[in-house]
Amino acid sequence: MNGVPSHTGPILDYASPRRHGKVRLPSNSRLDARDGPDGVVVTEWLEAKASAIGAIAGAVLTLLLLLHSCFPLAQGRMELGDWLILKGTPVVVAIVEVVVLLLVINNTWRRTVLEARRDAVLLRFTAPFGDRRYEWGASEVEDIRMELTTSAAERNSLGELEIHLAGLPLVKLFTDHPALELEALAARLRHAVGLAR
Question: Staple partner for 47: which of 18, 28, 138, 144, CB 3.0–4.6 Å?
Fold first, then answer.
């Protein structure tokens, strides 16, 4: 997939390491930027795999115990309504749990890879159950910059990387990483693409 239609919304990749409320846990995303022969390659990944594996194992065990305890019940004749409650409810719960587990796996093991070269900018979102790829020519890139996501007055300001494309949606990446780190990264990416300071 090269680029995106101009009528679509911005491309967002939200994997903030900052805690947001009581329900959403921090995602502990990490950035790695390396200079390659053709430019700069930045990779973002989540470090929550160990806790995710524990949660998945606990959920699977709970699901198996639920199914094991419900299916031996009422082996004799029973009304259809009772059968649906005793047998159907655990199946519905199992289906919902499997869907949630697959979403957790897909989001936890995903990676964002941004590559800036003299001729192009490539963006890939890789995950176990699907990948997305975008590519823009260097001439389409108007600017790559850091924008603050917290107040500049805060001691450890956070930001996100924005890629501004000519006539195309805004791309926002690496949200809520340290602003100083992203500012230096933006400068490296601008240099790799050949943008003026």
Answer: 28
Highest mean pLDDT among 46-50, 81-85, 101-105, 186-190: 186-190
The DSSP result for 140-186, as a single string, is GEEEEEEEESS-TTSTT-EEEEEEEETTS--EEEEEEEEHHHHHHHH
Structure token digits, residue 43: 């990779």
Residue with tokens 């430019």: 39
> Which H helix or E strand runs over 66?
helix 49-70
> What are the structure tokens assigned to 48, written together?
């929550």
Whether the pLDDT of residue 16 is over 70: the answer is: no
- DSSP class of residue 14 equals -
Report whether 147 contacts 137 (CB < 8 A): no
Cα(82)–Cα(100) distance, integer angstroms: 27
Q: What is the mean pLDDT of residues 5-23?
A: 54
The 10s digit of each residue's pLDDT in 117-140 is 999 999 999 999 989 999 999 999
